[in-house]
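Our preliminary data section would be incomplete without showing what the modeling component actually yields. Below, a chain of 82 amino acids is followed by its predicted structure, encoded as tokens that our downstream tools consume directly.
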Amino acid sequence: MQKRWRLSKYRVKRILECFCVDIPAGKTASLLGYNRHTAERYFTLFREHILEYQHQRLMLVLQDMFPENIKIAVNRPAVIPQ
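Predicted structure:
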């Protein structure tokens, strides 16, 4: 069985910098010397975190607007539409 290696914080930060300036995952991988699948996997993780954050913010806003009707979903799994 293959052992999964994690990237260092520095390398993840470099991928995040490329993500933030809209460089595609494939181009990011070639610029940084990483595998394309690695860059795509981290880009997907960044998108999932953004989606989860936005969902939590929306639920808080809705709860403030309609306190009697909205319940906050705890630990809702992040799903990105395909």
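Residues 68 and 74 are 17 Å apart (CA to CA). The two ends are 30 Å apart (CA to CA). Preliminary results of this kind motivate Aim 1 of the renewal.
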